[in-house]
Amino acid sequence: MNGFESPPDPLNSEEAPNPGKVASDTQEVETTPRLSPFRRITLEVLLVVGIAFPLALVLHTFVTQVYAISGHSMEPTLYDGERVMVDKVSPAISEISRGDLVIFASPEDTSKNLIKRVIGLAGDKIELIGEMVYLNDEPLREGYTRRTIFPQKPGESTIVEEGSMYVLGDNRPQSRDSRDFGTVTLDQVKGRVLLRLWPLDALKFF
What we know:
- With about 210 residues, the chain is an alpha+beta fold.
- The protein is about 15% helix and about 25% strand.
- It has helices spanning about 35-65, 90-95, 180; strands at about 65-70, 85, 100-105, 115-120, 125-130, 130-135, 140, 160, 165-170, 185, 190-200, 205.
């Protein structure tokens, strides 16, 4: 009447439909029935088991394996009854290093597995004189052994051939190793020790 329109009443005004906006009084209809808490938990457990079990099987078969230590030849590094996890992959794709702990098939009985420490690799000269191991004419400093007196055989040495390694147990007086059965070929290696996982209070990476 005076040329001006009154402002719309906010309580009675209507807004134009907005396809991207849902009115507050609109109810959504659920098309999928809800699972009970028990069924949901059961489904989640089955899903986890369905993924974890095949994964664990693959890891055990191709990547890692747990071995139990039997005997005293690796004391004081490893004791009878302890458990170690072994890496089965790296020995196949990379070089083994001196000082590694390895598990391999016994050259005397391939049905048995042994665990020893790698002392020498291809081309190395090994001499055992008195209480010392000589590696390439230099005394090998070892802080992990129970010493033994090696037979005095001056000038007697072992040259590690290609594709082989010289191994010794850390408990030298109670170990059958390369002193007895000679060098070990790399294709006999089952894996390299990664860690001691049992007992838990003695957990250690190598």
